């Protein structure tokens, strides 16, 4: 399964667990529009670190935090091997 599909699956699973009604997940959707609160995002990043073995937001001192779903996914897809 691709990184993108794993991230989308994790978002959907956490939304279900947190009782968040997700809008359609598109690359242009802002993270704010997902309905996730800070706890849901913390859970998402922790699960993705367990699943993918990386947290792109702690790898560099010059972190640019994502604004959209597409930005968030690209942060994981563009982690150097």
TrEMBL record:
Residues 14-55 form the Carrier domain. It comes from the Bacteria. Gene3D superfamilies: ACP-like. InterPro entries: ACP-like_sf, PP-bd_ACP. Coiled coil: none annotated. This is Acyl carrier protein.
């Amino acid at each position: 399964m691709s990184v993108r599909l794993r991230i989308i699956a994790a978002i959907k699973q956490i939304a279900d667990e947190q009782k968040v009604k997700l809008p359609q997940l598109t690359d242009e959707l802002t993270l704010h529009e997902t309905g996730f609160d800070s706890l849901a995002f913390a859970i998402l990043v922790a699960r993705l670190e367990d699943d993918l073995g990386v947290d792109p937001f702690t790898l560099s001192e010059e972190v640019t935090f994502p604004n959209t779903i597409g930005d968030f996914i690209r942060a994981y897809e563009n982690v150097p091997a």
